[in-house]
Design brief:
Elements (H helix, E strand, L loop, with lengths): L2 H4 L25 H8 L1 E7 L4 H12 L6 E7 L16 H16 L8 E14 L20 H11 L9 E11 L5 E12 L15 E3 L4 E2 L5 H7 L1 H12 L5
Parallel strand pairs: 1-2, 1-3
Antiparallel strand pairs: 3-4, 4-5, 5-6, 6-7
Helix pairs in contact: 3-7, 6-7
Bound molecules: inosine 5'-triphosphate.
Length: about 250
């Protein structure tokens, strides 16, 4: 069953799905809609993350993506009954994304997915890259100044570091590497970014982490001030996740 996910000759979003077009149904009750319901292939995506801000965004992004032919259930690792906390010692976002996904994949080995369900373990390794700080905090974003340090303190500290940095040099980006371990154990990973600047103050209640000082010039607001829907539409996470689903044939 899994081979089909990797088959390059299959059109995206059509795995295990027969639309029934081209042939009149034998039984009028057998509507195309009914067939779609009964023939939808089940996928379970388990996200190797313990970050509540991330999983909230991931679920909203996936709920807002139409996936014909597939019924997709998204669970955090905790909801799937496992918890992994591997050493994120990779050289870059991609390495760390695969380290996390692999750890959860390994823990789930002893608990096979239901017969009719294709299970994919995914992960998101992300961070804020500030050009004027030589790319910091980068892959260390979560642990910058200590895991438990309030984000307001971290942002105030960074604003202090950047106080003499002119507007045009305050460029920054959020980066997200989305990893996937397919049922046969093969890895996939890709990254996307959201470009912006470090603002001069902290504003907004939406999002999480460093959003309140990440200024988006095209909106004149921070990524904590735009709506969650808008953030998911343009964000590093939204773009990387949708691209991964497209590459797996799960999104048209
Ligand atoms: P998991 O490893 O359990 O997924 P984590 O928070 O440790 O959670 P990362 O190592 O990928 O995850 O670090 C990502 C950090 O980057 C995150 O904790 C935030 O500080 C920051 N970050 C990433 N995406 C962000 C976003 O959309 N908005 C604000 N901050 C973000």
């Amino acid at each position: 069953m899994w081979g089909s996910l990797q088959a390059p000759d299959k059109a995206p979003g059509t795995y295990g799905f027969t639309s029934g077009t081209g042939q009149a149904p034998q039984n009028p009750q057998n509507s195309t809609e009914k067939k779609m319901q009964t023939m939808k292939k089940k996928y379970q995506i388990i996200f190797a993350t313990g970050n509540r801000g991330k999983i909230r965004e991931i679920k909203a992004i996936l709920a807002g993506s139409s996936t014909p032919g597939a019924e997709i259930e998204v669970l955090s690792m905790k909801e799937a009954g496992v918890e992994a906390d591997p050493d994120e010692n990779g050289a870059d976002f991609e390495d760390n994304a695969l380290i996390k996904a692999q750890a959860v994949y390994d823990l789930l080995r002893s608990r096979p997915a239901p017969e009719d369900t294709v299970r994919i373990v995914m992960s998101d390794d992300s961070g804020l890259v500030i050009d004027a700080l030589g790319g910091a905090p980068g892959v260390h974003s979560a642990r910058y100044m200590g895991y438990d340090t309030d984000y307001r303190l971290r942002m105030e500290h960074i604003l202090d570091l950047l106080q003499d940095v002119p507007e045009e040099k305050r460029t920054a980006r959020f980066v997200a590497a989305v990893g996937a371990i397919l049922p046969d154990g093969s890895p996939r990973v890709l990254r996307d970014t959201m470009e912006g600047r470090i603002g001069h103050s902290i504003a907004g209640e939406n999002g999480f982490g460093y959003d309140p000082f990440f200024y988006l010039p095209q909106y004149g607001m921070t990524s904590a001030e735009i709506s969650p829907e808008e953030k998911n539409r343009i964000s590093h996470r939204g773009k990387a996740l949708r691209r991964m689903l497209r590459e797996l044939g799960l999104l048209t």
